[in-house]
């Protein structure tokens, strides 16, 4: 089938199977027909408030059915959803709203942003508004997520892809048509947003979690016979840390595939999941929200190239030194990406300028490409630690620490040191059920996995996970808090 506007696809799916579940959240389910009619009425309410073709609509709703309804209503008007965290502090949201200048802000109390129209959580459109089909419209950009970036200032990444979809074509990585998809991640992040919407547009029944919980995720997989899910390594580790009797006793036979991305996955953890599910079901993707370059690797391919995030194709990536010279195979440098000349731009920024040189762009990642063309990531350039003249990549140390059974979450940073320049410092959240674990125990564990100069000089215990549900950690903020 040819591509059609997203709003049209939602209606097409409703006509084909009106009573099939579309979205389930915390025990409530809406059918395809209910979703289509509800969003038709909501779109008319938005239109009365000034939302029109190619406007950006800031949506600060938590995970749930209402989030999807707001996005679909926006698309039905030919406008673009611009998701932000529902827990975003006022000043951060205000900076984004100033950049975007949306006609409405969804998910905040009226009056929050001055004269700008704000709709609270639970907003109900006038019941007198028509819930029949609207005129067909297509947004020039189908999404506009936000990134704080390394500067701490907000930037909007407006997609170069129009708001169209093909509801009959399966997506890759086992994300098929008319399946059941678990949505465990926060929807204001690009990947959970993008892949859950792709699932919805191809008729998948979305089972949405308010917040990720490892045991509850397995409950939902069993209950709803989930066929596909997107996860990040933090979620993979939390599931793997569940008591073995409970985890291995679950019926997860319905899973046809998982895709993980968002952060480097410790090789030991990846291997455990491949052994658990089978290599044909485990996929990994590396790309920025900007999508200038993408690598993909299957579980079987990863077993042949352990640690890689996939093969570089079409000359879309290269590794360069600090002076911009391309490095030979196997050497670590900065990852530069380029959209092939015969393809359209994949994004545009609002509030930022791309770091570019001769048509190539960098997102600040470090890595290497081997002689076979496979990409291996090291870390973010801004997070690299220079200690005693050696370059140390926090992700490598964190991956080793994560292998300790007592460690639930960790982050590694550099702290100023008069002798080394920077001393390696580990911030760890230990499993409360694991019992006390000494610094010496952690050092001994790491000594079997890392060269001595990469082992943290100091360890700090914290009482909550270091990473959020999307697996993100802002090391610069952790470092600033401890360097003062």
Q: Summarize the amount of helix as a percent range.
A: 25-40%
Strand fraction: 25-35%
CATH class of the largest domain: Alpha Beta
In the sheet with the most strands, the strands line up as 3-2-12-11-13-14-15-16
Give the rounded overall mean pLDDT. Answer: 93
Distance between the termini: 59 Å
In CATH, the architecture of the largest domain is 3-Layer(aba) Sandwich
Largest sheet: 8 strands, mixed
Q: What is the domain total for the residues?
A: 3
CATH topology of the largest domain: Rossmann fold
Unreliable sequence segments: none
Q: Which class best fits the helix and strand makeup?
A: alpha/beta
Number of strands: 28
Number of helices: 13
Q: Identify the CATH homologous superfamily of the largest domain.
A: ANL, N-terminal domain
Query: What shape does the CA trace take?
Result: globular
User: What's the Cα radius of gyration?
Assistant: 23 Å
Per-chain topology:
Layout (H helix, E strand, L loop, with lengths): L3 E2 H11 L4 E5 L2 E4 H17 L7 E4 L5 H12 L3 E4 L6 H11 L3 E3 L10 E3 L26 E2 L7 E5 L4 E2 L14 E4 L6 H12 L3 E4 L5 H11 L3 E4 L1 H8 L3 H5 L8 E4 L6 H11 L4 E5 L8 E4 H6 L5 E2 L5 E4 L12 E5 L9 E4 L4 E3 L2 E10 L4 E7 L4 E3 L2 E3 L1 H9 L4 E11 L3 E10 L8 H9 L10 E4 L13 H9 L1
Parallel strand pairs: 2-12, 4-5, 4-6, 6-7, 11-12, 11-13, 13-14, 14-15, 27-28
Antiparallel strand pairs: 1-10, 2-3, 8-9, 9-20, 15-16, 17-23, 18-19, 19-22, 21-22, 22-23, 24-25, 26-27
Helix pairs in contact: 1-2, 1-3, 2-3, 6-7, 7-9
């Amino acid at each position: 089938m040819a591509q059609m506007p997203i709003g049209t696809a939602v209606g097409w799916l409703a006509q084909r199977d009106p009573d099939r579940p579309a979205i389930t959240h915390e025990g409530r389910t809406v059918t395809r027909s209910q979703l289509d009619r509800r969003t038709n009425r909501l779109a008319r309410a938005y239109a009365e408030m000034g939302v029109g073709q190619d406007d950006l609509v800031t949506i600060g709703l938590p995970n749930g059915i209402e989030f999807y309804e707001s996005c679909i209503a926006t698309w039905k008007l030919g406008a673009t959803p611009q998701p932000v965290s529902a827990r975003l502090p006022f000043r951060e949201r205000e900076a984004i709203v100033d950049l975007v200048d949306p006609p409405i802000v969804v998910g905040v109390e009226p009056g929050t942003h001055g004269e700008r129209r704000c709709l609270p959580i639970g907003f109900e459109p006038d019941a007198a508004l028509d819930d029949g089909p609207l005129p067909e419209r297509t947004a020039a950009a189908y999404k506009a997520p936000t990134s704080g970036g390394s500067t701490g200032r907000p930037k909007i990444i407006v997609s170069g892809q129009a708001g169209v979809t093909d509801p009959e074509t399966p997506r890759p990585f086992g994300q098929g048509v008319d399946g059941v998809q678990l949505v465990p991640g926060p929807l204001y992040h690009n990947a959970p947003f993008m892949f859950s919407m792709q699932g919805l547009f191809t008729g998948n029944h979305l089972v949405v979690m308010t917040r990720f919980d490892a045991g509850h995720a397995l409950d939902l997989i069993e209950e709803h016979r989930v066929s596909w899910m997107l996860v990040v390594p933090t979620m993979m580790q939390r599931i793997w840390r569940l008591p073995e009797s409970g985890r291995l006793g679950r019926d997860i036979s319905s899973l046809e595939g998982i895709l993980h991305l968002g952060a480097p996955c410790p090789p030991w953890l990846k291997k455990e999941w491949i052994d658990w599910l089978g290599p044909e079901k485990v996929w990994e993707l590396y790309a920025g929200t900007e999508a200038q370059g993408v690598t993909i690797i299957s579980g079987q391919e990863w077993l042949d190239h352990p640690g890689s995030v996939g093969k570089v194709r079409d000359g879309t990536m290269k590794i360069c030194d600090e002076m911009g010279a391309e490095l030979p195979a196997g050497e670590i440098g900065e990852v530069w990406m380029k959209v092939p000349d015969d393809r359209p731009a994949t994004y545009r920024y609002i509030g930022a300028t791309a770091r570019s040189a001769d048509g190539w762009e960098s997102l600040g990642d470090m890595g290497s490409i081997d002689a076979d063309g496979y990409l291996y990531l090291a870390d973010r350039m801004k997070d690299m630690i220079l200690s005693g003249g050696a370059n140390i990549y926090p992700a490598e140390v964190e991956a080793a620490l994560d292998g300790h059974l007592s460690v639930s979450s960790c982050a590694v940073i550099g702290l100023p040191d008069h002798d080394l320049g920077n001393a390696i410092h580990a911030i760890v959240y230990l499993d409360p059920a694991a019992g006390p674990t000494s610094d010496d125990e952690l050092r001994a564990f790491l000594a079997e996995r890392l060269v001595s100069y990469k082992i943290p000089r100091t360890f700090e215990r914290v009482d909550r996970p270091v990473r959020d549900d999307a697996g993100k950690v802002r090391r610069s903020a952790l470092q600033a808090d401890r360097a003062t």
